[in-house]
Specification:
Number of helices: 14
Oligomer: single chain
Shape: globular
Structural class: alpha/beta
Radius of gyration: 22 Å
Strand order of the largest sheet: 7-6-8-5-9
Number of strands: 10
Number of domains: 2
Order of helices and strands: HEHHEHEHEEEHEHEHEEHHHHHH
């Protein structure tokens, strides 16, 4: 006789069956240095609204370091790097990571700085033989190399310790390091405590912050990619139409005064797309990183940039 499956047993089997995986876009939430478009996009749920008609939700893991975002894109843990510096993207592409730039964010040359501890080095050349903390494989790493090169030195003349910006700031505060590579409100806070800005990125390197995505995500989900760009652009539109409210929101999220937030807004030089002049600049950055052993493999910069990311 064939076994009889009761209705109750059938329902138990159905309920016990694994549910299909939820459709979700994993995009890193990067608030620092002062990524106002990203803050607005998340706080106002603009991306959620763009993806809702597709039946897709949003997950916002906080990953601030560019190199870690690139690794997460490579493994598929991230679909989109919400804000990443082009130096990290170039290095990632050089290592064969499936990454492409899909939009611009900012050119914040005044936001990034090399900062000496209170009572410490007065000039960049005074850092010879000293310990400097900062995030490896980022535009700040490039800044340190460029600042030393200007003084006839190179990275081998300092003891470089790789740390995230919050860790670098804490190490600077405690005096465990002689200098730190900091950005935005960390620079402002360090100055308040008596630390000295030895140099900003201005005139040394041109930081470019962008949005990047996993190539598989770009190919398989053009509708989701379109939603990310639409949310990014709507965030900027709202910022331009509601400047004071936008800056106040950024101040609240970052724990800043309105005056500090306005200063960071002015320093950030926001943009929604890259332009043709950014390409030779990125090529120069790549050559600089190759010459200073910050990256290993040369790439074609144009292969890194999706056409929609250009003006």
């Amino acid at each position: 006789m064939k076994p009889i499956i009761t209705l109750a047993a059938l329902l138990t089997l159905i309920w016990a069956a694994p549910l299909p995986a939820a459709e979700v876009v994993n995009i890193s939430y990067v608030k620092s240095p002062f990524n106002l478009q990203m803050i607005v996009m998340k706080e106002q749920e603009l991306l959620e609204k763009e993806l809702a008609p597709l039946g897709v939700t949003v997950n916002w893991p906080e990953i601030n370091v560019g190199a870690r975002q690139a690794q997460a894109l490579a493994t598929g843990d991230l679909n989109v790097a919400g804000v990443i510096n082009t130096s990290s993207a170039i290095m990632a592409k050089g290592e064969g990571y499936p990454i492409k730039i899909i939009a611009g964010v900012a050119r914040p040359s005044d936001v990034f700085a090399l900062v000496a501890k209170k009572g410490g080095a007065a000039q960049v050349k005074d850092l010879k033989g000293k310990t400097v903390a900062g995030p490896k494989g980022t535009v700040l790493h490039n800044l340190l190399a460029a600042a030393l090169q200007k003084e006839g030195l190179n990275l081998s003349y300092v003891n470089f310790v790789s740390m995230d910006i919050p860790q670098s700031f804490a190490a600077l505060q405690s005096g465990r390091v002689d200098a730190a590579l900091l950005a935005a409100n960390a620079v402002i806070s360090a100055q308040k405590e008596g630390a000295k800005v030895l140099t900003t990125a201005t005139g040394l390197v041109e930081p470019k912050l962008v949005i990047a995505a996993n190539e598989n995500f770009i190919t398989r989900h053009p509708d989701r990619l379109k939603a990310v760009i639409a949310a990014h652009d709507k965030a900027w539109q709202w910022i331009t139409e509601n400047h004071e409210e936008a800056v106040a929101l950024g101040a609240k999220v970052q724990g800043l005064s309105l005056e500090e937030a306005e200063q960071l807004f002015a320093w950030s030089h926001f943009t929604q797309r890259l332009n043709a002049s950014d390409i030779p600049g990125m090529e120069a950055d790549m050559l600089f990183m190759l010459e200073n052993d910050i990256m290993r493999n040369k790439i074609n910069i144009r292969d890194l940039i999706l056409p929609m990311a250009l003006e």
